[in-house]
């Protein structure tokens, strides 16, 4: 089957991840990208059935971006995430069962039912949290990087944010401080073309978000955010630089969200054709899967195996969430302050 | 009022007010995030961009501090901006321009300018949007001299007070509870205003005064109906404006009923209820009180995501019923 083409690109010709990672790790990456996709679909479905309330922002279509950035990160490294943060959370290592439990508002959820989708976090795997405030995570990441530097740890911090966030003051202030203090932080702009309904062309004075890196004297790198290898390569480079004490990098990962902004979006600001094109021709999972087969890393049966494993994992996670207890009203005012011992 | 009256939703009433203001006055324009083709996060601006064009219904980048500041700058130089925050929580990003600039510019310049800016804030909990999208921050702004802060509770008032705000020469902050947007009520056609700084008695009664704001007015009215059947006659005062506060209406009401219950969604301590209570304590109405004043406000916690916890965080009708019964029966 696929092995036939494996010899076509060898050695230096191989895309970055094929040189850097073992076949097992490459399959793991596909597994996680599927886990993100199916998690989002499961969340969407549960929302439609009324099991989840509020709103949510799905990252379907942006899986390669979350995964590629997290590939060179260790468990000790940290991230700050966004309202569109389910994928980041999974890519960094969170368990989907505890994420679903959070979305269902249960005590077994990562935030004990207090945070929900928009505040999903798993501090144990280094995710300092999604954020309801656009741009809110950037200065926090800089602070975490300050800690890393002060404590002489090897840790790096990644701050994910959207294209819309680059017009908040917090973005500019954060990049500047990270640069003057040469902090081990990587700013990852997931540019999906729109901040809610407003295209970057209408919101942003520069053609590329990465162009703004120049103003803060750091490298600005543009990658195809739907190409796992490209994203991972840029992340490796930035992580290396950060760990070496050379300071921050701004990575712009160009991607697309297949779904509307949130649960209340009529998609009136973009065309059906545009959405269709991204879904059929530039789906990050399809692209990666095809490439893996092309290089003989996996065959169709292997892919089916991953899909089935993920399907089961998601089904189990939803069951776990459903069966978990809700918080007690009597505990309403817990966690506002640190409980004294 | 002799204008024909129809049923409109609270959101439609605001939209109509903005359309009338823009038709009447070239200087009026709208600014905010996703208020154009998207129609606003809560569909309040709706299709206005089609009627008035993108020059007067301006989508800003996600830049609250800058956006609010641009509105202040435009206002001080002769335009009449209506600035929409996507959620009232994001006022926190724009506090500098609201508190240090808009509120103080006229004063600092010795009266040489005024700042006729209107800012709209979709506020409150009940949508499952958790801690950063559900707050009631009106008391924050109510603390700032130079600002006027209003909380219309009905479609009628939403339209009339917005038109009053546009006509007002000073900065007016409008807090709109998100759960009210779909509520319908009678709204006159055409232009009219509802004065800023005047409370409204929504229901007359003799046994107890409930002073409520925004969505709590409706919960208080619902409770009053139940209490009526129990022989408790409740007067409901809709405060409508928290700065400048119409304390006289509250004082007169308390003198009549001798009991006061304040109901508001913002966090209980250091909020609107404290100010209303103090107004009574400092007035001659104090001598009329037959029972201690009671406040029902938001719990001392951020708004939780879990729907049951969320509900428990803000006053609900059963809480009002219990507080009212306790007050009237002397259990407090
Ligand atoms: C300070 C602030 N302003 C506005 C919003 C409302 N809002 C939430 S997400 C969003 C769009 C964000 O766009 P982008 O940063 O590109 O992220 P994307 O949704 O595309 O992933 C907006 C306007 C918010 N949550 N916080
Ligand atoms: Mg975006």
UniProtKB/TrEMBL annotation, chain A:
Domain named Dehydrogenase E1 component: residues: 32-329
InterPro entries for the chain: DH_E1, PDH_E1_Alpha_Subunit, THDP-binding
Tagged with keyword Ribonucleoprotein: no
GO molecular function terms attached to this record: pyruvate dehydrogenase (acetyl-transferring) activity
Chemical reaction(s) catalysed: N(6)-[(R)-lipoyl]-L-lysyl-[protein] + pyruvate + H(+) = N(6)-[(R)-S(8)-acetyldihydrolipoyl]-L-lysyl-[protein] + CO2
Keyword entries, A-Z: Oxidoreductase, Thiamine pyrophosphate
Keyword Oxidoreductase applies: yes
Superkingdom of origin organism: Bacteria
Protein name, entry field: Thiamine pyrophosphate-dependent dehydrogenase E1 component subunit alpha
Species: Oryzicola mucosus
UniProtKB/TrEMBL annotation, chain B:
Name assigned to this protein: Alpha-ketoacid dehydrogenase subunit beta
Positions of the Transketolase-like pyrimidine-binding domain: 8-183
Cofactors demanded by this protein: thiamine diphosphate
SMART domains with a match to the protein in the record: Transket_pyr
Cross-referenced Pfam families: Transket_pyr, Transketolase_C
Domain of life: Bacteria
GO MF terms, alphabetically ordered: oxidoreductase activity
Keywords: Oxidoreductase, Thiamine pyrophosphate
InterPro entries given in the database record: THDP-binding, Transketo_C/PFOR_II, Transketolase-like_Pyr-bd, Transketolase_C
